[in-house]
Predict the 3D structure of the following.
Amino acid sequence: MEATKKGAKQPRVIPGFGVSLGVTVAMLSLVVLIPFAALAVNALKLSPGEFWSVITQDRVLSSFAVSLETSAVAACVNMVMGLILAWVLVRYDFPGKKVMNGMIELPFALPTAVAGISLTSLTSENGAIGKFFAMFGIRIAYTKAGIVFALIFVGIPFVVRAVMPVLEKFDSSFEEAASVMGATRVGIFFKVILPELLPSLLTGTGLAFGRGLGEYGSVVFIAGNKPYETEIAPLIIMSKLQQFDYTAACSIGLVMLLASFLLLFLMNLVQVRNTKILRGGEA
């Protein structure tokens, strides 16, 4: 006897789909869609020529370049260091492991302004880290290096938390089989382990990059805010708001929003492609 007939409705784990969907759409609209729509509406009050004039000002373009450049560098560093941290936390047992694992979440819990002040005091020429590098003529605070330093701090949890679950579920028998067949440790990592970690690693790196694009609190102090040098796009938006130029602020914000949407779209493409590959392998 067949357990279920073809086309028969399956019982829902959580009943009330219509109500649940309505609540979900309402919350999504209030928290995400309506604010974004308001941003777009305010930006579109300008004519296409005026909008283009606002977002192509030299100072605005420079801030876009600074935000993109520093976020990309920080994301690349976080990709490598986050993978190493996740590897250590999953594969090894050592004293203080639970404390270190908990500290990974610190950038999420710490107010960004507090993080910015702390990082600035550490990396300034009188700080513990900045003083050491100053002996070699290297400045960190009030430079792009300082911005990257801050973005590494706020972005590394995304990579670690994205990679750790995949590492925890990884079957070590694949490594043993590759080792028996004569593969070196480097070969095992790059040909066996890394392909499994790559989708989650790219996802975490993309999230860290997106966080860096919009980061303000932890960067504004350490950047120094020098026009055309260390001025980030969120700071330009804040300065426009302080000047009550809401349409210009919304126009710049809309560009940042579109960049974030594009990043999320690319991340979803990677996840969909990985899912298809996995299903093809299982078949």
User: Anything to note?
Assistant: The first helix runs from residue 17 to 43. The two ends are 27 Å apart (CA to CA). The CA atoms of residues 215 and 234 lie 7 Å apart.
